[in-house]
Amino acid sequence: MTDLLAMMEDHWWWLVFAALLGIGEVLLPGVFLIWIAIAAAITGLAALALPIGVPVQFLLFAALCVAAVWGGRRWYVAHPVDSADPLLNDRAARLVGEVVPVVEAIEDGRGRVKVGDGVWSCRGPDTPVGGRVRVVGAQASVLLVEAA
Fold first, then answer.
1. Which of 76, 103, 142, 145 could make a disulfide contact with 133, Cβ separation 3.0–4.6 Å?
2. Nearest Cα to Cα of residue 100 among 60, 129, 69, 63
3. What is the pTM of this model?
4. CATH for 91-147, options being 2.40.50.140, 3.40.190.10, 3.40.220.10, 3.90.1150.10
């Protein structure tokens, strides 16, 4: 085994590492490992082309990791990925338009409504218990409602 390690040049380790990170990105997509894989691949190519020692390779890899992640982040901010369900993680926004029953009378603009199997605080026009209101928006975890 040590003969195999001695036979492999430094650049091959970086290229194998880059390939493993690329495979990891495919198996566990998170849009992060790919940037580290790019840094490892560039480090491997630099080690192949230039006579640089291992400590310099690690410094180059660290600098390239920072640059690749920074560049990747800027690219994704400039080119956002469209989602089939943009409100997936915004539960309150998903409720807009729903008609829900009042479970605690809305008095002085405040009350509670039943949404699914949960109860949410709400603000809106005075409505007795059992009345129905339509969700028109949300502020933090408080639903904004109007008469249905």
1. 145
2. 129
3. 0.54
4. 2.40.50.140
- Three-class SS of residue 33? helix
Q: Burial, 77: exposed, middle or buried (Cβ in 10 Å; 0-12, 13-18, 19+)?
A: exposed
Neighbours of 142 (CB within 10 A): 14
Distances (CA, A) of 141 to 91, 138, 144: 9, 7, 10
Torsion sign over Cα 97, 102, 103, 108? positive
Instruction: Give CATH 2.40.50.140 domain extents, the chain.
Output: 91-147
Whole-number percent of the chain with pLDDT over 90: 55
At residue 46, what are phi and psi to the nearest 5 degrees?
-65, -40
